TrEMBL record:
Annotated transmembrane regions: 558-577
Domain of life: Eukaryota
Origin species: Acanthamoeba castellanii (strain ATCC 30010 / Neff)
Family: Belongs to the mitochondrial Rho GTPase family.
Taxonomic lineage: Eukaryota, Amoebozoa, Discosea, Longamoebia, Centramoebida
Broad class of enzyme this protein falls into: hydrolase
Protein name: Mitochondrial Rho GTPase
Phosphoprotein keyword on record: no
Length: 586
């Protein structure tokens, strides 16, 4: 809504334009004949005419065409016009004009930009304030955006906006606004609920004027649209505009999400935004509302995101986080954990996207309250960069996704998963796990080749852990790891990013180095390799280190030692890094 309104008065000499302004400002009458035309930048035009003139219709038509031509020349949208009949004091004692509506109706029919017609007298101080009230109102609550006067119907954009609002207010998703839902809507938009008599009055109006507008359960979408059509026809545009603005619409019926993003400062490099408790509660409630019992299917996602003009977030459909691929890997349904994992990663990766969708999906408070600023290493979502040959990284991530048959089972390790669809789409796994306090954490894994140092460099500031894989049965793999690992060690050390060098055997059933294998000494390259015969031994080692490294709290308590192998690798990776880093410094 505009906080300033630019009103331009035009018309024939002697119509009383300047007198109107002077009377408004000074409450006195002055004869001033000079007129300034500022049509190009006007928010509203008051077209003045002398009420005692004999050729009123001709002169009004002349000026309306001039306004149209001037606005078209500068490619400006048509501006609302208020017709102002001045000098009615010259009529004598009877100031009324019973033929006003009859005289002006043809003009208003031809020129849809004319909002209203009012007669006044600057000399007698009659209706002067009302003239400028209607002018401001035409700007603050524009008609043309909502209503097509020619067809006497709501514009498509207005209908779409009201449908979205209806859907957001229909909390139980039954296609009806119950009395409770209607009162919640009323309280949100106007600060007060309807009393029983007022509520019954609304229902009576709908029942008496439109079919299928009301059921025994409450107000239908048809009835909701009818009410707003009625408000506009009766000149109560402020009612509909109040509703639209309460749900984030600007004067052009666009949801103003850009201002949300600019109002929240960028986080410092050491911090990230993540979902607050309010944010988690909101997205959890959305999942419960649209989950038919087995998680969110693709048609559930379509329904859920129908109130968001962009559809699914671009991050999800760019090949990085693709729910369509994810659901194919998880029985075509997204669990609550998977849903929260998606939003947790999205928020840490691009908090502006989350802010936008909080607005689109109907978060009722300030969207910023759904986010919290946290140190990167304390965030609920972690990004792990997995570096190695395609065979090793595919095997490692396949294990994380639970695609391999070995103990322990990984069936529950990932609530939602994604696969790479292009070279630039590297996020191939997203899962959840509890930390030592039982708080849910989310892990995203990206894979990189050993030669992609520059690509890694651009992501290190986001990473919580780097895992470098090498094939213990391949001497070339070891050589490549030694060369690339030394450079990665230096990069990670400069950014204080944990790094784990893990010896694997890509043909082994367990995907970890087999018992009895020799761990090469690469300490001169700053690389410390650790070999594990199974996930259990990796867990034991990580548990032992956790007792000495209290700074990291990612290791579950020992009764949870049967946790997933992928979780053990991640937990062990962070703890081993701390152990080796401390040993080297000692």
């Amino acid at each position: 809504m505009k906080d300033q309104v630019r009103i331009v008065l035009i018309g024939d000499d002697g119509a009383g334009k300047t007198s109107l302004i002077a009377t408004l400002l000074a409450d006195s009458f002055q004869e001033v004949h000079k007129m300034d035309q500022q049509l190009r930048t006007a928010d509203v035009v008051c077209l003045c005419y002398a009420a005692d003139s004999e050729n009123v219709a001709e002169r009004i038509t002349h000026w309306l065409r001039h306004i149209r031509h001037t606005r078209q020349e500068c490619r400006a949208p048509q501006v609302p016009v208020i017709l102002v009949g001045n000098k009615i004091d010259l009529r004598g004692e009877d100031l009324t004009n019973p033929k006003l509506q009859e005289d002006m109706e043809p003009i208003m029919e031809e020129f849809k930009e004319v909002e209203t017609c009012i007669e006044c007298s600057a000399k007698s101080f009659l209706n002067v304030h009302e003239v400028f009230y209607f002018a401001q109102r035409a700007v603050l609550y524009p008609t043309a955006v909502l209503y097509d006067a020619g067809s006497r119907s709501l514009r498509e954009e207005c209908v779409a906006a009201l449908k979205r609002i209806f859907k957001l207010c229909d909390k139980d998703r039954d296609g009806i606004l119950s009395d409770d839902e209607l009162n919640a809507f009323q309280a949100r938009c106007f600060g007060a609920s309807l009393d029983p008599a007022e509520l019954q009055g609304v229902k009576d109006v709908v029942r008496g004027n439109v079919e299928n507008g009301l059921t025994e359960k409450g107000l239908t979408l048809t009835g909701f649209l009818f009410l707003h059509h009625l408000f506009i026809q009766k000149g109560r545009l402020e009612t509909t505009w109040t509703v639209l603005r309460q749900f984030g619409y600007d004067d052009n019926l666009r949801v103003d999400v850009a201002s949300l993003c600019h109002s929240l400062p960028a986080p410092p490099p050491s911090h990230v935004y993540e979902l607050s408790q309010a944010g988690v509660a909101f997205f959890s409630s959305l999942h419960r509302a649209f989950d038919k019992g087995a998680g969110l299917a693709l048609d559930d996602l379509d329904d859920l995101f129908s109130t968001a003009a962009p559809g699914l977030p671009a991050l999800w459909t760019s090949g990085e986080l693709d729910p369509a691929t994810a659901t194919q890997l998880n029985a075509a349904h997204i669990s609550l954990r998977g849903w929260l994992a998606l939003w947790s990663y999205t928020t840490v990766h691009d908090h502006k996207t989350t802010l936008e969708y909080l607005a689109w999906l109907g978060f009722e408070s300030d969207p910023q309250l759904a986010l919290a600023l946290k140190p990167r290493r304390e965030a609920s979502a972690l990004l792990c960069l997995v570096v190695g040959s395609p065979a090793l990284t595919d095997a490692f991530l396949g294990d994380f996704l639970g695609k391999r048959d070995h103990e322990p089972s990984h069936a529950t390790s990932t609530s939602i998963t994604t696969t790479t669809r292009s070279p630039s789409s590297r996020l191939v796994a997203l899962g959840s796990l509890p930390d030592i306090s039982g708080t849910e954490k989310y892990v995203a894994m990206r894979k990189y080749g050993l030669e992609e140092t520059e690509a890694l460099r651009t992501r290190l500031h986001e990473a919580s852990l780097v895992i470098v894989l090498y094939d213990s049965s391949d001497s070339r793999s070891l050589s490549n790891t030694a060369h690339a690992g030394a450079e990665l060690n230096s990069l990670c050390r400069n950014r204080d990013t944990p790094i784990l060098h893990l010896a694997l055997h890509h043909t082994a059933t367990l995907m970890l180095q087999q018992d009895g294998a020799t761990v090469p000494d690469l300490s001169e390259n700053g690389i410390h390799l650790e070999a594990f015969a199974s996930y259990s031994t990796l867990l034991i080692k990580a548990h032992q280190l956790a007792r000495r490294e209290q700074e990291w709290q990612w290791l579950p308590t020992w009764p949870q030692a049967a946790l997933l192998g992928a979780v053990a690798v991640l937990v062990g990776g962070i703890l081993l890094y701390r152990h080796f880093k401390g040993s080297k410094q000692a």
